[in-house]
Write a structure and sequence with these properties.
α4 links the parallel β3 and β4. The chain is an alpha/beta fold. A seven-stranded mixed sheet has the order 2-10-9-8-5-3-4, sandwiched between helices. Strands 11-12-14 form a three-stranded antiparallel sheet. The chain folds into two domains: 240 residues, Type I PLP-dependent aspartate aminotransferase-like (Major domain) (Aspartate Aminotransferase, domain 2, 3-Layer(aba) Sandwich), CATH 3.40.640.10; 102 residues, Aspartate Aminotransferase, domain 1 (Alpha-Beta Complex). 36% of the residues lie in helices and 18% in strands. The structure holds pyridoxal-5'-phosphate. Pyridoxal-5'-phosphate binds next to α3.
């Protein structure tokens, strides 16, 4: 039996996707091989690659003046590639600091040039700072935000208006969870292993004018323009990860696209937040209500003993991935697109039952 999978990433994949992949693993569409065993320059693989790109374009309504890239190195390499490609000596990279992942992005940029923190998280409860009116220096290279802080469970519902300055977002943990206006961004990146597919591929959506800013002195593998020019086939891409991502994207389309998934995600998270809010303090959220993430739901219990008992009982009932990240502690339920509503309902029921018994 499959578990109630609340892992933060790598995370639950749609059952239908896993079944299709299993059916096609040994013999992909009658070619007598798996898709992992063919050249990345073959027409079979190219069709998979281009179809995945096309589906992402369709689902996110990506304008024509953007490229979709499939890179490697995770979102963590993007923390470095962004400043390597866009932070020149005379510029300042601006960061909105909202938690653990934005801190990591900032740390990498600091190694490469001048940075400025233009807004910082409010501490207790955790809250997205005011980002409507950012005080940006004239020589800002870009503004970097993290749309969803996976560890804290904090989500940016609106994005800052940055005028001519490129807005760049790490969307690793909420891409495809809701519709977004891609045209507001110079670049979006996301590791695949939450809503997009398995680990191993990182999606980059980049506006064409950003490609002109890339310094020719960078090694080729770190240059967005080189990857764009080669349609992400400059070197061997992670073919199996791109293939599985394509299957997930088709599944998202079959679900009715992002509007319908967004509503479902709000409902799913709502079941768990409701169990927290109606518990009269037995469970406590750590994020201000208006900034709660729909993907990563964080909460604590009053003592560490109760938390240990909660995790133990949950495990026995088939819930996995509920232990909070080591930096924050407490509990975290990651209810990404592929987590069934029934799993969220089962968790909410368990939370109420556990409360009654303790
Ligand atoms: C928001 C966010 N950014 C970056 C990362 C790092 O991603 P990767 O492990 O793909 O480098 C994660 C991983 O969980 C994340 O949630």
């Amino acid at each position: 039996m499959r578990k109630h999978n609340f892992n933060a990433g790598p995370a639950a994949l749609p059952l239908e996707v896993l079944q299709t992949a299993a059916d096609q693993l040994v013999d992909y569409h009658g070619i007598g091989m798996s898709i992992m065993e063919v050249s990345h320059r073959s027409s079979d693989y190219e069709a998979v690659h281009n179809q995945a790109q096309q589906l992402l374009r369709e689902l996110l309504n990506i304008p024509d003046n953007y490229k979709v890239l499939f890179l490697q190195g995770g979102a963590s390499l993007q923390f470095a590639m962004v400043p390597m490609n866009f932070l020149s000596q005379d510029k300042v990279a601006c960061y909105v600091q909202t938690g653990n992942w934005s801190n990591k992005a900032l740390k990498e940029a600091k190694l490469l040039g001048e940075t400025k923190v233009v807004a910082s998280i409010d501490a207790t409860p955790k809250r997205i700072p005011d980002i409507k009116h950012l005080d940006l220096p004239d020589n800002a290279a870009y503004v970097h935000v993290t749309s969803n802080e996976t560890i804290e469970g904090l989500a940016m519902k609106e994005f800052p208006a940055t005028g001519d300055i490129a807005l760049i977002s790490d969307m690793s943990s909420d891409i495809l969870s809701r519709p977004i206006d891609v045209s507001k961004f110079g670049l979006i990146y996301a590791g695949a292993q939450k809503n997009l597919g398995p680990s191993g591929v990182t999606i980059v959506i980049i506006r064409d004018d950003m490609l002109d800013k890339v310094p020719a002195t960078l090694p080729s593998m770190l240059r967005y323009d080189i990857h764009a020019k080669g349609n992400s086939l400059y070197n061997t891409p992670p073919t199996i990860a791109v293939y599985l991502t394509g299957l997930v994207l088709q599944w998202v389309k079959d679900q009715g696209g992002l509007h319908s998934l967004a509503q479902k995600n709000i409902r799913k998270a709502g079941l768990i937040y409701d169990a927290i809010d109606r518990s009269e303090g037995f469970y406590e959220g750590i994020v201000a209500k208006e900034d709660r993430s729909v993907m990563n739901i964080t909460f604590g219990l009053q003592t560490s003993e109760l938390e240990a008992a909660f995790l133990q009982e949950a495990k026995e009932l088939g819930f996995v991935g509920l232990k909070g990240h080591r930096e924050v502690g407490h509990m975290r339920a990651s209810a990404y697109n592929a987590v069934p509503e029934a799993s969220c309902q089962a968790l909410a029921d368990f939370m109420r039952d556990f409360q009654q018994r303790h």
